[in-house]
Amino acid sequence: MHPHVNIALRAARDAADAIVHASDRLDRIKIIDKHPDSFLTSMDQEADDTIRYHLQKTFPSHSIHSRVSGHHAGENDEPIWFIDPLVGSYNFSSGHPQFAVSIANATGGVVKHAVLLSPLLGEEFIASRGDGALLNSRRIRVADHKDLENSLIGIDQAKTSAELFISLMQILLKSGAELRQSGCSPLDIAQVAAGRLNGGWCMYPNSLSLAAANLVLAEAGGLIGTESGSPDLDKGQELIFGNPKIFKELIRIRRKVN
Q1: Number of domains in the chain
Q2: What is the pTM (predicted TM-score) of this model?
Q3: b vs e for 127-144, b when ≥16 Cβ sit within 10 Å of the residue's Cβ?
């Protein structure tokens, strides 16, 4: 295992332990920002502090960019760490188990290493570019499901219009797909990587939240793109992901909806 992954995993586990402990007493969690696009709790901040402590102690020359605390310049601009200490904060604050700790390491604008932990489910997704993806130390690959009928598709209605969401659901259901909604799109992406979901759709969340999940999916043989199918995620407002065959089917479906 690469040294960057080892340290990221240690940091993520410490943050996850604190999150699990806090989940037993949600009445003690302070809501700092209630806006749906920037929901923030005191646990986000505590987990962020924990992760940055480990990274800055071991790699003082590295920079860090966090969804919670912003940019922290190291001695060098690169490598840079992208962290979201609590993806799915609203789920966490509501007692819902679908949330994650996300840490990714990039050089030259390319994510090289990724760690994504699901604290309450006890699942650890890790990936290094060119070395494949693992779930709890076991290699994972996307499922070889060829069409939408009887496929499992993850959807996330956050930040989307009711009209678009309903239109997509109707077309997918008529195609014979089964729909699942976790409220945490990075975990949906990881579930596709593990072969548990066949594909998914969501509005484009914070890029820091996606960095780790995207590499896990790519290393497991999956594809991700915008609503037009472009691999340049910053050029779209939506994300579509899946195994190669389902990805193409979802792009085709999306083009039917204005």
Answers
A1: 2
A2: 0.94
A3: bbbeeebbbeeeebebbe
